[in-house]
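Duplicate of #3305? Posting structure anyway:
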């Protein structure tokens, strides 16, 4: 007994024939997107079932690989996945997070697409949507990847599409994930170990990207380039299938100003601000985008490793204190803005029992225990979490 392509795609969701449309984000490009399935180009005799529209907002060249191919990361934060009129079962989903990692062959004639995204349906379901394939770089395809206003659709038939739905019986359960930006041997290492022992997947970002533990996802990035924050989150989704539900910003940079608080050069000032503030703000921004896609009953928390410089300034540490003070304000406003969602935000400030800074005596194990306790409680407590090893939260004047 033979099945028509149409009956087959009804029986096997993973073999649904999909048409992939890229909207470049340019106003003019909207005019070039076919409004109905009947006007789409290059379809064979089989009927289309699903139309995917992905909005590409920016491209970041990662660099060349050792085989000579070039890797470019494209941001694909929004879009839609929708069945063609008349197809059953009908559904529509909005893409809420995504990234496309495209590898160009050394000769420039072909590109290998590897798109991963998360979409939410109108009834609250979640879809893990993957799109892979090898495409010939024609003039029309080049317009798409160059994001020109007159770009249209990619040709049909070069790709494979895979869906996973969290309600499906054969779906892998989403992962609870800890992401630490600024992974070192003390706070990050202890916190990662603590969360992993409690069943969490762990992703660590550092400038060197070396594997502290082969079971973790180790990501190389430089937070002095704040635009790399999105790439870090995209790498987590690509590896684990969903966004992290606990995010810790643990990085810092400081150029001391022994000649006075206004003696710092613009270059050093901007470098420290990028690491201490801009990257942390963008990490919180990406974190809440991901929180919105995760199961409602999961804990979701953003924690900023800090110190007391927001209340006890030190002239020689002006750039570090500026960053801590700015993020303290951001976190306090996040508590006000998201208090009804069950998302928590904390400024982690370890102190001695007398209230003095721990400075070089900072305890990785104390941070790990405290960060676990804070992140797993969906009730927001005092956002400025001054804590003492072995005691927990303690309020200081």
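Output from current build:
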């Amino acid at each position: 007994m033979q099945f028509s392509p149409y009956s087959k795609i009804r029986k096997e969701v993973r073999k649904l024939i999909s048409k992939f449309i890229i909207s470049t984000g340019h106003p003019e490009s909207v005019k070039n997107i076919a409004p109905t399935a009947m006007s789409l180009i290059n379809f064979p005799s089989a009927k289309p079932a699903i139309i995917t529209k992905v909005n590409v907002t920016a491209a970041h060249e990662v660099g060349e690989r050792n085989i000579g191919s070039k890797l470019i990361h494209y941001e694909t934060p929004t879009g839609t996945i929708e069945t063609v009129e008349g197809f059953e079962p009908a559904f529509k989903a909005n893409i809420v997070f995504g990234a496309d990692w495209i590898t160009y062959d050394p000769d420039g004639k072909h590109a290998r697409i590897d798109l991963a995204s998360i979409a939410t349906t109108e009834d609250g379901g979640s879809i893990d949507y993957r799109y892979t394939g090898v495409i010939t770089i024609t003039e029309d395809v080049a317009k798409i990847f160059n994001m020109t206003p007159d770009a249209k659709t990619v040709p049909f038939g070069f790709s494979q599409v895979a869906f996973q739905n969290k309600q499906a019986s054969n779906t892998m359960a989403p992962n609870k994930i800890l992401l630490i930006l600024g992974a070192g041997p003390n706070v990050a290492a202890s916190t990662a170990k603590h969360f992993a022992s409690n069943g969490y997947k762990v992703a660590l970002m550092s400038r060197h990207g070396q594997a502290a533990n082969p079971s973790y996802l180790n990501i190389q990035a430089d937070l002095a380039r704040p635009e790399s924050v999105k790439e870090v989150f995209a790498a987590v989704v690509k590896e684990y299938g969903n966004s992290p539900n606990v995010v810790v910003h643990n990085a810092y940079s400081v150029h001391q100003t022994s000649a006075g608080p206004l003696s710092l050069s613009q270059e050093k000032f901007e470098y420290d601000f990028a690491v201490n503030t801009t990257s942390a703000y963008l990490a919180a921004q990406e974190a809440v985008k991901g929180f919105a896609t995760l199961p409602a009953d999961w804990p979701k928390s953003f924690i900023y490793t800090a110190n007391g410089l927001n209340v006890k300034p030190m002239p020689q540490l002006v750039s570090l204190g500026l960053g801590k003070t700015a993020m303290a304000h951001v976190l306090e406003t996040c508590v006000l803005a998201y208090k009804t969602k069950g998302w928590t935000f904390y400024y982690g400030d370890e102190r001695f029992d007398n209230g003095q800074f721990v400075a070089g005596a900072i305890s990785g194990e104390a941070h790990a225990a405290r960060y676990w306790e804070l992140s797993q409680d969906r009730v927001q407590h005092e956002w400025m979490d001054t804590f003492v090893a072995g005691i927990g939260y303690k309020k200081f004047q």
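Confirmed duplicate; merging threads. The chain has a mean pLDDT of 84. The two ends are 79 Å apart (CA to CA).
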